[in-house]
């Protein structure tokens, strides 16, 4: 691979990996969760072995792929608009261009895209990316191409991802695929299949490769990282059938996290996403023990009401969630906690909404991802529950959640005033070429004057001021992580 430096639309420098001798061009866009962005890197790697290098220029692409999200209707509408754009370019500029849909939306809307609307040439589900070369041959032969079969064991652990839109500093490392939790609002178990974990050695090898190439931070990634469990392969639900030897030598998330922390002391370690009922106290002690494991936990709660949590099939109560928050605060002082929250879930009352606000007041999250409920076809909520909260009520409640989160975010950033924090420099600030930007251990953005520092440096920054989402300071020297 050769490294090509290009700028994206925001003017940020990106490191693109190109294989010498490849002549075809792939344009790939990703929407939705971090797992989709990670999957796109797997796709780029597979296609790199079949003659494709990535391009940032849509009009010159031989193949255009969009990696899609189905978790909310808005995400699907965004993808549909992008497909309209691709096809307009195909008609007017590049008639040989092929267009394909990947990911969750591909699995859910396969027949519509190919047969009814005829807006794509191929449809590929999350577990079928290794079949892309065969599917492209079908397209070249003039046939529709589709593979959305879900797998019981595919983890892409044997694929070395091509890093897309990379800053050369941070990277995702996938450790699990699928989900077993069956939350009533969520399509993931239907579009990504049941949960299975990736072999630990392949994870360590991927991180070793990243370290050797100069990367400074990795995020262990999965729909539910805390339930990671390697016992030789297969679905997590089948662990009960494993042999005594497999059970005795199994590796869980706490063990994996410690393996990575010990193995790469000069790299920062993050992980996402956690599920409250699967986060064990043992993992909290690992976070507290190792300084290179970031003090940030993304812990979606979705609602503060026990009644709504039960309707969502969230396998924790409000009180259990609060107890976990209290453990985090006790074991990892200064740890930031962030949230996902849904307003207007079916049957949600004003009292339920007030329970959500009161939970937020108790936790005071550092930041969060907040949405109005969007009915997803195929989910239990979509099939069995009436979407009965008026849209204006959903949006009013959502605004109240957002406003309260903004207040809490400001409270959390103000806690850092006067402190010195370690920052990994990730990019130039959006507002000024003379400012650098990175995150501290708690995943809060920090901006400070460039001076002689560069992207990839670990520096100590004295915090002098802040906004609700950003810490502002001045560097006072390199940290021990360099």
TrEMBL record:
Domain TRAM: 414-477
SMART domains associated with the record: Elp3
Cofactor list: [4Fe-4S] cluster
EC numbers for this chain: 2.8.4.3
Enzyme class: transferase
Compartment(s) where it occurs, according to its Swiss-Prot or TrEMBL record: Cytoplasm
KW Membrane (keyword) present: no
Radical SAM core domain location: 165-412
InterPro entries for this protein: Elp3/MiaA/NifB-like_rSAM, Methylthiotransferase, Methylthiotransferase_CS, Methylthiotransferase_N, Methylthiotransferase_N_sf, MiaB_methiolase, rSAM, rSAM_horseshoe
Keyword Acetylation: no
Residues the entry annotates as binding [4Fe-4S] cluster 2: 179, 183, 186
A family per Pfam: UPF0004
Gene3D superfamilies from the UniProt entry: Methylthiotransferase, N-terminal domain, tm_1862 like domain
Recorded catalytic activity of this chain's protein: N(6)-dimethylallyladenosine(37) in tRNA + (sulfur carrier)-SH + AH2 + 2 S-adenosyl-L-methionine = 2-methylsulfanyl-N(6)-dimethylallyladenosine(37) in tRNA + (sulfur carrier)-H + 5'-deoxyadenosine + L-methionine + A + S-adenosyl-L-homocysteine + 2 H(+)
Cofactor details (free text): Binds 2 [4Fe-4S] clusters. One cluster is coordinated with 3 cysteines and an exchangeable S-adenosyl-L-methionine.
Record text on subunit structure and interactions: Monomer.
Function (record text): Catalyzes the methylthiolation of N6-(dimethylallyl)adenosine (i(6)A), leading to the formation of 2-methylthio-N6-(dimethylallyl)adenosine (ms(2)i(6)A) at position 37 in tRNAs that read codons beginning with uridine.
Full protein name: tRNA-2-methylthio-N(6)-dimethylallyladenosine synthase
Organism: Flavobacterium microcysteis
Upper classification of the organism: Bacteria, Pseudomonadati, Bacteroidota, Flavobacteriia, Flavobacteriales
């Amino acid at each position: 691979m050769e490294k090509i430096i290009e700028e994206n639309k925001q003017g940020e420098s990106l490191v693109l990996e190109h294989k010498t001798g490849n002549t075809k061009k792939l344009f790939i866009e990703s929407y939705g969760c971090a797992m989709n962005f990670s999957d796109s890197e797997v796709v780029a790697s597979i296609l790199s072995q079949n003659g494709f290098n990535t391009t940032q220029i849509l009009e010159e692409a031989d193949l255009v792929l969009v990696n899609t999200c189905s978790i909310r209707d808005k995400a699907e509408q965004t993808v549909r608009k992008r497909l309209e754009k691709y096809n307009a370019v195909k008609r007017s500029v590049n008639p040989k261009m092929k267009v394909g849909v990947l990911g969750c939306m591909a699995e859910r809307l396969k027949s519509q895209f190919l047969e009814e609307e005829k807006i794509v040439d191929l449809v590929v589900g999350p577990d079928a990316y290794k079949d892309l070369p065969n599917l492209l041959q079908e397209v070249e032969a003039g046939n529709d191409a589709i593979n959305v079969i879900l797998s019981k064991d595919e983890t892409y652990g044997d694929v070395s991802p091509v890093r897309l839109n990379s800053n050369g500093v941070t990277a995702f490392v996938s450790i699990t695929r699928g989900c077993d939790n069956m939350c009533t609002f969520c399509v993931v178990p239907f579009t990504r299949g049941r949960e299975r974990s990736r072999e630990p050695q392949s994870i360590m090898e991927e991180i070793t490769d990243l370290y050797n190439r100069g990367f400074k931070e990795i995020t262990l990634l999965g729909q539910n990282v805390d339930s990671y469990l390697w016992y030789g392969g297969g679905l997590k639900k089948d662990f009960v059938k494993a042999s005594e030897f497999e059970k005795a030598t199994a590796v869980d998330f706490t063990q994996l996290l410690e393996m990575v922390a010990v193995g790469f002391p000069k790299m920062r370690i993050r992980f996402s996403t956690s599920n409250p009922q699967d986060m064990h106290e043992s993992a909290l002690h690992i976070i507290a023990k190792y300084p290179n494991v970031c003090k940030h936990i993304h812990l979606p709660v979705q609602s503060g009401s026990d009644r709504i949590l039960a309707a969502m099939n969230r396998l924790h109560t409000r009180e259990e969630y609060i107890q976990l928050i209290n453990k985090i605060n006790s074991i990892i002082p200064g740890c930031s906690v962030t949230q996902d929250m849904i307003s207007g879930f079916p049957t949600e009352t004003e009292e339920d909404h007030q329970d959500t606000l009161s939970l937020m007041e108790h936790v005071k999250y550092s930041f969060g991802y907040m949405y109005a409920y969007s009915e997803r076809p195929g989910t239990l909520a979509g099939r069995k529950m009436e979407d009965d909260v008026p849209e204006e009520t959903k949006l009013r409640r959502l605004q109240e959640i957002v406003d309260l989160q903004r207040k809490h975010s400001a409270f959390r950033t103000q806690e850092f005033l006067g402190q010195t924090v370690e920052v990994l420099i990730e990019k130039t600030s959006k507002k000024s070429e003379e400012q650098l930007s990175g995150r501290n251990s708690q995943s809060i953005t920090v901006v400070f004057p460039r001076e002689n520092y560069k992207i990839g440096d670990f520096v100590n920054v004295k915090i002098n001021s802040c906004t609700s989402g950003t810490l502002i300071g001045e560097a006072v020297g390199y940290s021990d992580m360099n």
